Fold these 2 entries.
Entry 1:
Amino acid sequence: MILYKGEVYPDGKQEELISSLEGDMLETLQNNRTLTYNDVIDACDKLYQRVMNHEFDNIVLPLLEMANMPYSTFERYAKYFSKEGLLKKIDIELGDLKNGELDLDEENTRHYEPLGILFHIAAGNVDLLPAYSVVEGLLVGNINILKLPTGDNGMSIRLLQELIKESPILKDYIYVFDVPSTEVETIKQLANLADATIVWGGDMAQKAARTFVDIHSSIISWGHKISFTYVDKNVTDEELKALCESICATNQLFCSSSQGIYVNTDDINELKALAERILPLFAETSKRMGTLPLTMKAKNSLLIYNEKLEGNADKVFMKDGVSIIVKEDNKLELSFLFQNIWIKPLKKEDIIKVLKPNKNLLQTVSINKLIEGKKEISSLLAKAGATRITALGDNSRMLAGESHDGEYALRRYIRVVETIK
């Protein structure tokens, strides 16, 4: 499906609509009044209230069931669209610039302008992400072209269409196309219409963008990240339970999800003892939350069996579909996902040496509350490249005003313009 000026069209109209796209967008830039963040926030909050009043449960609930996502997780994500959440985002990310013109001196002022046109290439690991990426572009007045991720379930177009119904002025600022990634020339055509291409995805997506984005356009990357947990002997069972809940709620599919646990030790026996502590908590949590897909349970069983065959039988801990692999190396890596974690040694004095080479991959690290040398360890993790340091269980918590991977999106989607009075 295609969303164009508030109307939904079949994919067969793609070539015709794209041929009109540049002219329509330039006309909007020439003739429309500047879109304000209040226009966008009011529309988003009205839609948020409707969603929270269960008006869209016939769409939301089946999708949550398909994704094995608890409703509470969906509620946390949806709150990003609320008036409270978006106003806080504006305050933090734009600061005084949100108030309009600011004096530089007696003769000059400064204000922000949107970059103009943004082309969003969204990832599909979070259902609300494509629509939220567009909302961020709208908040500072940009026209937005969205390429839907593969396998999009229709929620993005439905949300944006409903947003336009709440504020019809937005129809000239939102264009959505379901272009397969194999249609490179079409993607290149859309990217070349934009002032910046917003890329959500891993290394392959980032490399691909560099091949089709024109030299006169910029690339703004929100790449895949790796997150983990760092603990010492003072970690409590309650904290480990909270970590298990976070892992089971996300199935480790988010950039913020903990892939494994580093322990401030070099004793393999301490790592095994921790695995034995966690396993029953992990299995009980998984059973209670019921978020592990059967297909992934079977897949992980094969992967874990292979680990055992490779001589690691005494370092593999399994129960009721969840698994823990104790490893003696300290390499940062993804887990097998879907409720499988690794446990590795990482002495405090090795944090920089081991993690700094992964500086562009690091995102969230959760640490235990009473970890010894907490302030020093937090500082070392931040110096290594981590952008969020949280409590166990809060890896994937969401707060209004948080950065994207250590940067403010709205600041990257504007230009600061200086003019004479």
Entry 2:
Amino acid sequence: MPGIYIHIPFCTRKCAYCDFYSLPASPHLLQRYTQALVADIRRRPHGSFPAAASVYLGGGTPSLLSPAQVGAILDAVAASHDLLPGVEVSVEVNPAPLRAGFARGLAAAGVTRVSLGVQTFQPALLRGLGRRQRPEDVAPAVHQFRRAGISSLGVDLVLGGPGMTTASVAEDLRRTLEMAPEHVSAYLLALEPGTPLARAVAAGRVDLPGEDEEASQYETAREVLTSVGYRHYELSNFALPGHACRHNLGYWEGQDYLGYGPGAVSLVSGVRSMVRADLYSYLREVEAGRPPQRVVLETLGAVDRVRERLLMGLRLTEGVCAAQLEAEFGPEATRPLLAVLQPAAAAGLLEYAGNRVRLTGRGQLLANEVFRALVG
């Protein structure tokens, strides 16, 4: 399921744990960027990129855009790309008070799925993550999107953040389920090098939960959500039937994707590239009628592609079809990497079901150990 990713590189304030490229926004800059993005999408040659199953506006904070700006971007995508019937169109939204008509405007622009970056409902824990939002704004935002007819609503939660406990996670899950979202993401916090939170932890100013506590929080999320009908389809993601995030599934299944905007990454026919992460360079190039500067990050050979397919595909609870990998990339590229996984299988972290290899329940808790074997 190939997808199209569009990066909106603006935030009102950068979160302490975030390493995505973003800058402060202004109304003028948002409009200028929208116009450049539309021109870039309409102008760029796309060759034989297949019909896309998903379009995803991420960031940054895409909800800083107006519905009209989102609509202009989506119109450009539809005019320049083949899109499959029923294409999933997702927008990340911060749960701040919504502007009048915002939810209806997104629905009218063609948005079918909204992902709310809740993280936690507890003010002290939000401050520990460097977020300013108010938990009381979440339910009204959900209500407005429901009234607007958005057919799929996701809530993103963080586990393992400063001050978080199994009890706090259970409370966040309780409040999440009160809103009955179709999708819940529960991500263990990853310390990204160079972020304010990573520096604070390294300096001893902030403590994070230990491994046992993180495991307890993760198991709590898994047990609570699956007990009420959510399917645990990826390490950190749970969905009601028919509501798995199609765009992210494309990444985990090894599909090609196109990225637009500064810092956006593409993977097309084994070549991974990135638009230079510099907003003003991007604006200058596009406004002058030139393609934005793009850097080739790597060209993946057969072994690299098998490794990546395993690293991404083992995140899925259904795992990876080993026979399909061998048919696609050949036994010479596939079998040595499958052999690398044998110690993990012997340790009970992996299991085989027919031609599929997948993480066990214990392996999901220790997934990084399996992944390190693949990249080591």
